[in-house]
Amino acid sequence: MCDGSTSTKGLPYKLAEESRVKTLIPNDLVASRSNCIKTLNSSSPKVDSISCIDIWLNYANGLLSYRYEAGNVDPLVEEEISQILINVATFYEDIGIETLHRAYESSQPSNNLWVTSGTYLKRGLGLVCFLKAISQTNAVADPKNMQVLNISNQLSLEFQLLQQLGIVILALSKLRSKVSKDAVVDLEPHELKELGTSSVFYAKLCIGSYNTALQCQDGRIVDVLFLKYLQSLIYLFLSINQYNMDECGIAIGMLQESVKKLLNIVPNSQLKELDILSSTDITKKRDILKKAFKRKIHTTTLKTSHIFEKKASSTYKNGMMPLLNLSLNDFIIPLTILLRYRYQRTNDNFSYKPVENDIEKLNKLLPRGKSSDIEGIPWTFQNGHLTFENSNDASNENENYF
User: How far is CA 174 from CA 110, 111, 195, 295, 345, in A?
Assistant: First the structure.
């Protein structure tokens, strides 16, 4: 089915082969409906999310035309329209995540894929807004309509969350471009100062994302691992700021909290280098740091020509979104190892600060979160077709994400 590689719970709605709605609509729409069902049941990897959007929008166009021509249709048809549009918005959500994955994988913070990801998310959100607008005049307080409203609201929150996550992943990409160089075996003070100039801002973005994610736990994207991922980044970014303020004890405490969150996601063996770094063998330490940043990702990479193709399974090794797994293995874990070494070395040789292990004291240092407001690209229904505004508003990745 057209879940894409990023879906965790599939589509919100599945179309039943046998449904009374087939007796309420013209034969050509019954055929369009069958085409939608085929995309869900097809075993062909060539049935991708973009193709699904075209096929499902074609059916939505037919249903909307029939609805407006008839003037008054059965509630089952109204329900079918809502379900189809929600599924199309879900396809846009998946493509937005997949494109964000490609953007991070490209290792180029200026890549236009960042912009493209945001555009797909805005289209999806715009379609949800369109559905809410056309449903207002036919709102009936029954369980099915309430379910559609709840799923629509959940999707709207997820689009906002993914927009915020895009900023966070872009921030990681920019940091990676500064840190992961072939010559890096330690972070010099000026490099940490440079990283620290934006670390509090990045932490605020993660806190804002975390607050939004808490509202999305019943949807398709957020689970416990997603929340732990954001928490680990919050403490990691704030540790850099504390280190630059000459608060090594707090920085180490913050980083330890980050590691605790990571241990809910990855096995302890993956972080074993942190223990090895307590060794006094400088050569061994430097070898570890070199390997950490030169380590290749052995998981299958997403190829440009196949990025939207259907995957055989939507279950992952640790249940996480592949994009988050990639950023962990590719950058966050090596950076954590590098920072742990730098903090401990500075504290042992220069600062002599007691390590702050009181989580309540550390949490009092957390800033207020920052959230970005995403506006959906408007959709209209004209001349028998759903169309979205052709937006070229994303020439700059910051403009696209803020």
Answer: 9, 11, 10, 19, 26
Q: How many residues does the chain have?
A: 402
Helix ranges (DSSP H) in 295-377: 322-327, 333-346, 359-363
Which token pair is 376? 């959906």
Kindly state the tokens that stand for 80: 């079918």
- Which pLDDT does position 342 carry in this prediction? 87
- Listed residue (184, 219, 274, 280) closest to 97, CA to CA: 219
The single residue listed with the structure tokens 């241990």 is 263
pLDDT tens digit sequence for 247-270:
999 999 999 999 999 999 987 777
Q: What is the mean pLDDT of residues 329-341?
A: 87
CATH numbers and ranges of domains, the chain: 20-388 (1.25.40)
Q: How far is CA 11 from CA 34, 51, 188, in A?
A: 17, 15, 48
Q: Nearest CA to 121 among 92, 143, 157, 142?
A: 92
Buried b (16+ CB within 10 A) or exposed e, 362-372: beeeeeebbbb
Q: pTM for the complete prediction?
A: 0.86
For 2-102, list the strands marked E by DSSP: none
Q: Return d(Cα 324, Cα 82) in angstroms, integer.
A: 31
Q: What's the pLDDT tens digit per position in 85-137?
A: 999 999 999 999 999 999 999 877 778 999 999 999 999 999 999 999 998 64
Q: Is 379 helix (H, G, I), strand (E, B) or coil?
A: strand
Pairing of strands 379-382, 385-388: antiparallel
Which residues lie across from 213 on neighbouring strands?
Answer: none
Kindly write down the DSSP assignment for every residue of 177-197, as one continuous string.
HHH--TT-SS--HHHHHHHHT
Q: How far is CA 194 from CA 110, 159, 198, 383, in A?
A: 19, 31, 8, 54
Percentage of the chain modeled with pLDDT above 90? 59
d(Cα 278, Cα 159) in Å, to the nearest integer? Answer: 42
pLDDT at 191: 65
Q: Which residues pair with 379 in a beta bridge?
A: 388
The structure tokens listed for 167 are 């900023």
